[in-house]
Write a structure and sequence with these properties.
Length: about 210
Amino acid sequence: MVACSPADGAEEVARFFAVSDRSHPLAGAVIPDGVALVETGVALLGRPEEAEGLLREAVGLYEQPGDARARAIALGSIADTLEHRGQIDEALRIRQREELPVYERLGDARSRVVTLSKIAGVLQARGELDEALHLLEHEVLPVLDRLGDIRSKLACEANMAIIHLKRHAPGDREAAAELLRSAGRDAEHLRVPEAAMIRELRRNAGLDP
């Protein structure tokens, strides 16, 4: 395991490629005041203490059973803020115990897989590389493939490659090279900014042909 301080952890999470939720983040929100608080809290991520306070207030507004998804979104925003502050253990707790179960109960496959990807990012930052890789390989990648989300799939493959390169186990370099080849092909085909990031990652890892 690779030990890391909270600040180091926040930096590691930030390095992960984003698996995005293409739906509007506030879709399904019911209470207008709560929507405003979430939007304001997210806008204040550069001032994390204020952001967290507003987001927690928003969570309190979504206590009715019909507001489960909106509450999960607000909790996810709190976890984002905590990661920004380097409080990755609490962010992980919120994602695993409060946010993820809601999406599982609702059958919201995309929100579930986005949350799982963020959990993997935190596990990677904590040095739990085997656990993070297992989550991405067995829980995230197959769902993204089934959803036909090529851009998020290539981001997942790049994240898996990053973990292989950090782990240094036998066969990891070969696995990382193959994952980056696959991710790079899709990124170049889609002409997305991730293409340049993947090329740089390959170059820095000495994986260029």
